[in-house]
Amino acid sequence: MEASFLSVTLGVVIVAVLGLIYRWLTKDRNFFLEKSIPSMDCKPLLGSLGPLILKRVTFYEFVQQIYDKFSDAKVFGLFFTMSRTFVIRDPELIKQIAVKDFEYFTDRRTLFGDENNDNPNLLFAKALGNLKGQKWRNMRATLSPAFTGSRMRQMFCLMERYAEQMIAAVDRESAATGSVDYEMRDFCTRVANDIIATCAFGLEVNSLDDRENEFYKMGSKMVNFQRPTVMMKIFLNMLCPKLAVKLGLDLIDYEQGQYFSKLIKATIEARETHGTVRPDIIHLLMQARKGKLKQSSNEAAEEKDTGFATVEESQIGREQIEGKLTEIELIAQCLLFFLAGFDTISSLMQFVAYELAINPEVQQKLYQEIANDNASTLTYETLQNSKYLDMVVSEGLRLWPPPATERICVRDYELKLENGHNFVIEKDCAVWFPVSAIHKDPQYFPNPNKFDPERFSQTNRNNINRDAYQPFGIGPRNCIGSRFALMELKTIIYKLVQNYRIERYERTQVPIQLVKGLTGIVTENGMYLRFRKR
């Protein structure tokens, strides 16, 4: 009798506890409906991201599906696991939130760590994209002078020199038959790795020839976010960010963090000992560490458009501050540039190459522009004056942007819609901007699935709603490295097309299939293209 009573009591307790957990997990499921906002369903733990987390759809497909589902709404809701998230479909509202009312949306979701934590092993928390409030403002103003057009011009010589080295490596591979086949993710990550090595770390690396070099191997491990251990850390951070902080979790594994930290420290020590000056990012960060990295008024006035996709630095980035970088902050920014260069820029590179391969008429027109330049040596001015190249890259960025960007509301904000429907976005709620779906909305870009650089011609670009084009984000928290990314992307595409025809062949998958799940732009079965010597 007593055992039976205990069993019943234990069963009741378990059911009660499970009920409380379920209630806690679903407590906000009517949050958006109470505001008369359409909303996606909320599942325990998964929130509205079930199809993504369970790998039933790609990130692009998910964003497109939810965008199309609420086609009559300017705003709708979803649950990012347990985080209440407002999805803003309307470009004008996005501009209002991200630019005009930026003071309410200054932050991004914290991706591991606490910016106030002094643990030297939690590097990612100190990176620019993870900082909040005044710390972010100070860091943005400190770093912005490193990415002006004039600083990119100085750094271009390093990039052009590497591009020649890249072509020489491809020449060696294709010498026997006049052509060579590449899996493009592998090719582009090696190219991006080497450019970051020379432009950020001051190293000379040739990963196309020396395929097992340590710098590339450690970098590949660092950006492999599909490893089960990393995916578990990411999911825990999404679900319980405070617990992830207490556990000391970081996006960057200890081994890779220590490797790159020692490398950066050694480079800085060698330069300071020998008085070495090199026009690269680590030199600029060393200046920032001493409080000497400034942007003159003349330099700001001389900034010129480096392409349709280039984003303009806000007043926050142009502020003059007296702050200095600490050693750990300097290391964190170097690692952030590496992650962005290795993964994001390499993805853009391979997809632009893919579009050129399956649209040979576009590639031929680009080649004709390059041939007309008749440039034995590529210069910064030639690159910036290549109008059709800019059109090609701008269209590549339209078709293959980040799926979505995000901001966090830092204090209650009343959003007023034209129909008189007003509601409050509460502090700590997130807002999502569905970039890839907006880029494929026919009301902004007719025939949106077609790769058509002509939409960015000098005549047609005036018809584009600039608020609907956000490859590098929008507002003061846009991508600080857009000029660097565009310079790299254009340099590599220019040199490849100048020397080789980029072709599809029997292994080329058309249309390309992407990996399903909450991941970056990764092809499911690889992307294979052929380079044929011109």
Give a brief rundown of this model.
The chain is of the alpha+beta class and 534 residues long.
**How confident overall, as mean pLDDT?**
87
User: What's the β-strand tally?
Assistant: 9
Q: Helicity, in percent?
A: 40-55%
Question: What string, H for helix and E for strand, traces the elements in order?
Answer: HHHEEHHHEHHHHHHHHHHHHEEEEHHEE
- Termini separation comes to 89 Å
Biggest sheet strand line-up:
1-2-7-4
Low-confidence stretches: none
What would you call the shape? globular
Give the oligomeric state.
single chain
Structural class: alpha+beta
Structural overview:
The chain has 534 residues and is α+β, with helices and mostly antiparallel strands. Helix content is 48%, strand content 8%. It has 20 helices and 9 strands. The chain has helices at residues 2-25, 50-53, 59-69, 91-100, 133-143, 149-174, 184-199, 214-222, 228-239, 241-246, 254-274, 281-289, 297-302, 315-318, 327-358, 360-373, 380-384, 387-399, 435-439, 482-499, and strands at 75-80, 83-88, 179-183, 405-408, 413-416, 422-425, 430-433, 500-503, 528-533. β5 and β6 form a beta hairpin. α6 (149-174) crosses α7 (184-199), α11 (254-274) packs across α15 (327-358) and α15 (327-358) crosses α18 (387-399). The protein is globular and about 80 Å long. It starts with a helix and ends with a strand. The model has no long low-confidence stretch (mean pLDDT 87).
